[in-house]
Amino acid sequence: MKILITTDGSDFSRAALEKFCRMMAVSEDTEIKIVSIYEQMAPMATEPFAISAQYYQEMMNLARKQCETFAADSVAQIKKSFPALNLKIESAIKLGAPARVIVDEAKEWNADLIVVGSHGRGFWGRLTLGSVSDAIVHHAPCSVFIARSDAEN
User: Fold this and answer.
1) Domain residues of the chain, as ranges?
2) Each residue of 19-71: pLDDT tens digit?
3) What pTM does this model have?
4) CA–CA separation, 77 vs 20, rounded Å?
5) CATH number, domain 2-43+51-152
6) Which residues contact 8 (CB under 8 A, 6 or more apart)?
């Protein structure tokens, strides 16, 4: 089985990973891919002062490094949760719109399952803010496991 686990470092994605580790049965032939995504930062045309391109590049580098940390933490958590198994775990750091990148990665990698956390926004929150998990459910090429944190239940 190929399992794609997403992380943005939030409490919600950590809760999804914890629930996955508690609830799912994995075996030696399970392949896991951790994906962490950062988005392009664009200069705002309405900024009252000019910010250099170097500043934006530094911010992009920082975002990428954060994603690398989130992915490494997730790999460590999985290894800690399944110490007896020699699982094949890889990670990928991607740039783009999270829902689209996750769905595309699941298609390219032929994932059997996507694991994602939910921020628990209601109808109006999804309508106004959007929802990555909602978009994944509607466009994923495979099953999707959406976990809420215990505080939301």
Assistant:
1) 2-43+51-152
2) 999 998 888 899 999 999 998 876 665 555 566 778 888 889 999 999 999 99
3) 0.85
4) 11
5) 3.40.50.620
6) 36, 37, 70, 98, 117
